[in-house]
Design brief:
15% helix, Immunoglobulin-like, globular, 343 residues, seven-stranded antiparallel sheet, alpha+beta, Cathepsin B, Chain A, 2 domains
Length: 343
């Protein structure tokens, strides 16, 4: 049974962890020019408000993934985040929750469509403001990934490009230097319609020197070392269960991954972003062996086509595409470790 729902997160900063390598972009990810009209019920809400926000791009934006993140101007901390899929009229209905902000906070509301940042609006949190009744309209525009490549194909169905894509994918950037696993879980649960923040996942995963048993090291450490490191797939299953989800751990290859995507399950994969460089083994006191790989990283696979995989990468908050050869080379470093997320 799901214990609670989290729509907000608090962070020290947005940290970009760039994955090395050169990845091509296939024709399936076409770029479309869009204009969206974003209406905030108020831009001066009181603390503890839930503010309605509509993002309207017209019929051409139907099925697009839309994300709204409000971050504090001074600290970079995330005040609120929400995401959704535009309806048949091209409208996404989102909210800003100011529960994590104090009166006097100044924030920036960022709007992204299909993983592309389009712009935003200043939000002032006041001591006596209402939760609506003073609407502000902001017009934003830019070039974004086409809806057909980003979210329009239903799970198990092939698009005209040969792609099978789980709908609702969005870009989200991890909040700490080494929180890619928890950020990936946040993406996966958000795609399934009930976002759980990376901080909530962190709170229920134990610590351990062995990443097969729990989180290894300091989550605020620097990426690339093996002292401050991260966590592998198995300890994340009980965390998913705690919030009402299921997780299937597997060590597989292309066919196993495609099978999970066909079932509509966003799948976390562990990769060696810089290949086998420096991988080594360590042992616990009882003799259990585990592998440590510098520059280990976790991303979410939400689709595939004949040429490669569609990726939501929390390292840089992007939706992207990696060819099969590049992806499988990195995935193989971690023995094909993966975690499919579902209800």
């Amino acid at each position: 049974m799901r214990m609670r729902r989290a729509c907000t997160a608090v962070a020290t900063a947005f940290i970009a962890v760039l994955v090395g390598g050169s990845f091509g972009v296939p024709s399936a990810i076409a770029q479309n020019a869009v204009t969206v009209w974003t209406e905030f019920a108020t831009v001066e809400p009181g603390a503890g408000c839930v503010v309605d926000v509509s993002v309207d791009g017209g019929g051409g934006m139907a099925g697009a993934s839309v994300a709204l993140v409000v971050s504090d101007d001074t600290s970079g901390a995330v005040i609120s985040s929400d995401s959704g899929t535009a309806n048949d009229s091209g409208i996404a209905w989102l909210v800003i929750d100011t529960s994590a902000a104090g009166a006097g906070s100044k924030g920036w509301a960022s709007v992204s469509v299909n993983g592309t940042y389009l712009g935003g609006q200043t939000i002032w949190v006041t001591s006596d403001g209402g939760c609506g009744g003073a609407p502000t309209m902001v017009t934003l525009s830019g070039s974004v990934a086409s809806n057909s490549s980003a979210s329009s194909a239903s799970s198990g169905d092939s698009a005209s490009s040969g792609a099978v894509i789980i709908p609702g994918a969005f870009g989200y950037q991890q909040q700490r230097g080494l929180s890619c696993e928890y950020a990936s879980l946040a993406i996966a649960t958000g795609m399934l319609g009930d976002w759980v923040s990376e901080y909530d996942f962190e709170s229920v995963v134990p610590l351990s020197d062995n990443p097969h048993w729990g989180y290894r090291g300091n989550i605020n450490g620097s990426w690339g070392n093996t002292t401050d490191y991260g966590v592998y797939a198995a300890p994340l299953v009980p965390a998913l269960n705690y919030f009402g989800f299921q997780g299937d751990v597997f060590y597989g290859g292309r066919a196993d991954l495609m099978y999970q995507i066909d079932l509509g399950r966003p799948t976390l994969v562990w990769i060696g972003a810089r290949g086998e460089t420096g991988s080594w083994s360590e042992y616990t006191a009882d003799g259990s062996r585990f592998q440590l790989t510098p520059y280990m990283h976790v991303v979410v696979i939400y689709g595939y086509d004949d040429g490669g995989v569609y990726v939501s990468d929390p390292g840089n908050g992007s939706l992207t595409w990696w060819d099969w050869g590049s992806f499988e080379g990195m995935w193989g470093v971690m023995d094909g470790m993966a975690l499919a997320v579902h209800w």
